[in-house]
Amino acid sequence: MSRRPRPSDAQSVRVTMDENGTPSVFRWNGRRYEVQAVIATWVEATAWWREQGLAGSNSRAAHRDVWRVEAVSRAGTSGVYDLAVVADAWRLLRIND
Predict the structure, then answer these.
(1) 42, pLDDT greater than 50
(2) CB of 51 within 8 A of CB of 19?
(3) How far, in whole angstroms, is CA 83 from its chain's centroid?
(4) DSSP secondary structure letter of residue 76
(5) How far apart are CA 66 and CA 73, in angstroms?
(6) What order do you get walking across the sheet with 31-45 strand by strand?
(7) Where exactly are the structural domains of the chain?
(8) CA-closest candidate to residue 91, choices 63, 61, 58, 67
(9) Considering the entire predicted model, what is its pTM?
(10) Average pLDDT in the 33-62 region?
(11) 21 by DSSP, 3-state: which?
């Protein structure tokens, strides 16, 4: 089962990539999460009619790259998160239970 963060929460994700171009750390909702593993990556279609204004005329506007990662917070809580680049900014798409 998965849930989507509130739209305001999804906007505030900062991701640090490692030397291979994979997410290694992300900050969301004032918390730091260290990526333990990349479970999967894929490209998914987006609602191009909603994101067209955000991405301009970029041909990738109809698609986004998604990373499903297992990450742990400083408090030791672990979870599975779907991170994506949307209109050149990182978003938290889903939190998987």
Answers:
(1) yes
(2) no
(3) 1
(4) S
(5) 20
(6) 2-3, 89-96, 78-86, 63-73, 31-45, 23-28, 13-17
(7) 2-96
(8) 67
(9) 0.77
(10) 74
(11) coil
